[in-house]
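Q: Structure tokens for this one, please.
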Amino acid sequence: MTKEKDYRVLGPGHYSLLVHGLSYEVFVRSGKKGYLVEVGGHSIPVFLGDSPGKGNGEEPNGSAEIISPMPGRVIGIKKKEGEEVRSGEGVLVVEAMKMENELVSSRSGRVVKIHVVVGDRVESGQVLARIE
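A: Here is the predicted structure, written as tokens:
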């Protein structure tokens, strides 16, 4: 069984993506700390590995922040304050440009503060939660 190709390379850093039957023209440019993905006139910073802002989101005291990598709307909260979380486990879900983005913890610990509620609009770089 072969899988239908979901993208086509149009040129260096220029792609055509097929998502749920809809075609999108996408431009990917390298930045200082990751990539800038442009789709439909919107720019989305993409960070691989480390989170934007304060290195990998970890503070010297061992706490970590979950930071929104893009503007969007909170559509889900997977962990409550006081709950334990493992490194790589989802804590919040932010919708941006009709795509759901699960934001994960960079460390294991306890969720000490969630700064948003479902329905809140968030900005790129905004602190959404703190893990200790």
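A few notes: The chain has a mean pLDDT of 79. The two ends are 46 Å apart (CA to CA).
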